[in-house]
């Protein structure tokens, strides 16, 4: 086992395409589904990594996209890819509208070696997500729980509305378990009555409040739309966090050049 | 495996996005300019910015921002291809050819590779032959305006023939080397070379 791990560290594995089978589909929100895929050649991933999905049409036309893994590597043999349906999307619309349990999906991975967290990297962990940017961070949260890690962790999660919060029940449950993970939500486009969380876009004051107990030595992982990631990463640097302790993953349209 | 597996019910609705001779396999065309970086955007004041060529050269050379801008520049219109699958056609830049920069140094004949180094600690490696003869430039204007920090401003490397992670943001210089040395993404599972037409995305990918 030890030799195997060392081998993986030193010599990256060739990433061969493989054909997975959909074993479960879960509707997370009105526009987000989780696909649990069984892989013939499953290898343990690091929380934060992604898989590439490739679709092939009868005439040979292909389309590829990357999707973050939501599951933790302790869940063996399968991966959960949580995918937001983008109206203009070519691959996400196929996955949402066509794919059912029993279907096959071609993919390869796991991919990515920087936006990853393993329990032995320690913390404290500051996780900041916008929308479906929660997915790779959820893999870290689940990995933390599965390994019994006591690393203090705080998640600041920005969603549009209450119904748009992905993994909401699981996050509520984890927060209440009191294992050192604290979840802070902010809702930017409307809140239910008596909403106890934040009600605005993430700003410096909010970041400062959430990051305060961890000052300076925290490890930050930020994932979401570009504007959110840029703002949060800049904010953390302004709060005195060394840039080398801030890792980012960005996605989605920029809304400009 | 290509061609043997079919995705049930997949037809593909974006295939007319771009001319096939301009869009490499597995890519889709976007009008957007997505931002992908591994960490916070560095913001080095221009008065502290410099560009250096060092390594296997007879005498290293360094330009301040003001000196750099006085070098002859060109307008470039190029297609760019990101390993995360988006391609953007006809991007317009103002920049300085790598050939122009290398005219200021005497290159050791043993130099075969360059390592681009940047603010924020990012690096990427490229064969020297693939950034000369008009194949690469340091861009400091995009679409007629100063290059925005999140896109690599004040100046980024642009190597259109390779995946865009080779076009390092926040450039501060080039080190000429005899032997190849992996840069940041190249040592984290991404391909050492990165030719989009051969789909050299990840470690070991090759089609030849």
What does this structure look like?
The complex is a heterodimer of chains A (257) and B (208). With 257 residues, chain A is an alpha/beta fold. Chain A has 2 domains: 2-110, Elongation Factor Tu (Ef-tu), domain 3, CATH 2.40.30; 119-251, Nucleotide-binding domain of ferredoxin-NADP reductase (FNR) module (Rossmann fold). Chain A is built from 6 helices and 11 strands. Chain A has a 6-stranded antiparallel β-sheet with strand order 4-3-6-1-2-5, with helices on one face. In chain A, 47% of the residues are buried. Mean pLDDT of chain A is 92; it is low at 1-10 and 253-257. In chain B, strands 1, 4, 5, 8, 9 and 10 form a 6-stranded mixed β-sheet that branches. Chain B has helices at 65-70, 98-102; strands at residues 28-29, 50-55, 61-64, 74-81, 86-97, 113-118, 123-127, 137-142, 145-146, 156-158, 171-177. Chain B is built from 2 helices and 11 strands, in the order E-E-E-H-E-E-H-E-E-E-E-E-E. In chain B, strand 6 (113-118) and strand 7 (123-127) form a beta hairpin. Chain B is mainly beta. The mean pLDDT of chain B is 94. Helices cover 5% and strands 29% of the residues of chain B. Chain B has a single domain, classed as Sulfite Oxidase, Chain A, domain 2 (Alpha-Beta Complex). At the A-B interface, strand 3, strand 4, strand 6, helix 6 and strand 11 of A face loops of B.
């Amino acid at each position: 086992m030890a030799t195997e791990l060392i081998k993986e560290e030193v010599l990256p594995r060739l990433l061969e395409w493989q054909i997975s089978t959909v074993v479960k589909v879960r509707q997370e929100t009105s526009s987000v589904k989780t696909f649990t895929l069984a892989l013939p050649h499953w290898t343990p991933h690091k929380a934060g990594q992604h898989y590439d999905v490739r679709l092939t049409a009868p005439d040979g036309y292909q389309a590829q996209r990357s999707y973050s893994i939501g599951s933790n590597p302790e869940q063996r043999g399968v991966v959960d890819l949580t995918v937001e349906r983008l109206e203009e999307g070519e691959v996400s619309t196929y996955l949402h509208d066509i794919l059912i349990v029993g279907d096959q999906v071609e993919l390869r991975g796991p991919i990515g070696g920087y936006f990853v967290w393993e329990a032995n990297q320690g913390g404290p962990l500051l996780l900041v997500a916008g929308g479906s940017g929660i997915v790779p961070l959820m893999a870290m949260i689940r990995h933390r729980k599965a390994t019994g890690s006591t690393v203090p962790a705080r998640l600041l999660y920005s969603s549009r509305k209450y119904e748009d919060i992905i993994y909401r029940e699981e996050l509520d449950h984890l927060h209440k378990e009191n294992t050192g993970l604290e979840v802070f939500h902010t809702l930017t486009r409307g809140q239910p009555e008596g909403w106890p969380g934040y009600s605005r876009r993430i700003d410096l004051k909010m970041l400062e409040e959430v990051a305060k107990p961890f000052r300076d030595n925290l490890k930050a992982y930020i994932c979401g739309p570009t504007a959110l990631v840029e703002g949060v990463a800049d904010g953390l640097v302004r709060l005195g966090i060394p840039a080398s302790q801030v890792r980012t993953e960005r996605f989605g349209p920029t809304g400009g050049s | 495996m290509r061609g043997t597996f079919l995705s049930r019910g997949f037809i593909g609705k974006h295939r007319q996005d771009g001319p096939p001779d301009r869009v490499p396999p597995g890519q889709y065309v976007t009008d957007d300019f997505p931002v992908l970086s591994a960490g916070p955007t560095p913001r080095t004041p221009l008065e502290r910015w410099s560009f250096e060529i060092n390594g296997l050269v007879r005498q290293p050379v360094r330009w301040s921002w003001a000196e750099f801008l006085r070098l002859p520049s060109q307008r470039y219109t190029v297609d760019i291809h990101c390993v995360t699958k988006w391609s953007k056609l006809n991007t317009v830049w103002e920049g300085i050819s790598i050939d122009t920069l290398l005219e200021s140094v005497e290159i050791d004949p043993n130099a075969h590779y360059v390592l681009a180094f940047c603010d924020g600690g990012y690096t990427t490696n490229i064969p020297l032959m693939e950034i000369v003869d008009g194949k690469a430039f340091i861009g400091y204007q995009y679409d007629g305006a100063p290059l925005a920090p999140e896109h690599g401003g004040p100046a980024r490397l642009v190597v259109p023939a390779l995946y865009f992670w080779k076009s390092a943001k926040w450039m501060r210089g080039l080190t000429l080397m005899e032997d190849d040395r992996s840069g940041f993404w190249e040592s984290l599972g991404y391909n050492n070379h990165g030719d989009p037409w051969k789909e050299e995305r990840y470690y070991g990918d090759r089609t030849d």
